[in-house]
Amino acid sequence: MKILRWTLFAVIAVAVLAFAIANRGPVTVNLDPLPWAVEAPLYLVVLAGVLGGLVAAALGGALTAARLRRRARRAERQMARLTAAVPARDAAPAAPTAPAEAPVPAPDPRTPPALDGR
What residues are paired with 36 via a beta bridge? Predict the structure, then answer.
């Protein structure tokens, strides 16, 4: 697994390096509502955008994970509270119950009605 990880890292590093070499030309980035302009190589602008996207995704993932951990802690506390409220149910054996009477079977619709005058 380590070999696969290092191989993948090397392939990505070579691709980024090739991209940087091929896109060395300067570009001007205007921060439109502000009066500032930045001149930098194209590869730095693109890689800064990619890095910014990665940071934003990581921040969103961390916030989601924190919310889910908070929900899990609340659920664990609630489960512990409910489990503590019902200790007798697990400790005592169930009381025997009287057997239920057998249900009266429903009449078969194919049999003729009784002829006893009812």
Answer: 31
**Number of domains comprising the chain:** 1
Range of the domain at 54: 8-87
Residue 96 lies inside a defined structural domain of this protein = no
User: Which among 39, 43, 44, 35 has a CA at the least distance from the CA of 27?
Assistant: 39
For the chain, the distance separating the N- and C-terminal CA atoms, rounded to the nearest angstrom, is: 86
Q: What stretches of the chain show up as alpha helix (H) in DSSP?
A: 2-22, 42-85, 87-91
3 in any annotated domain? no
More confident residue, 115 or 68: 68
Q: What is the mean pLDDT of the chain?
A: 85
d(CA 95, CA 88): 13
Residue of 13 and 32 predicted with greater confidence = 13
Q: Report residue 92's pLDDT band, with 50, 70 and 90 as the boundaries.
A: low
Is residue 74 domain-resident? yes
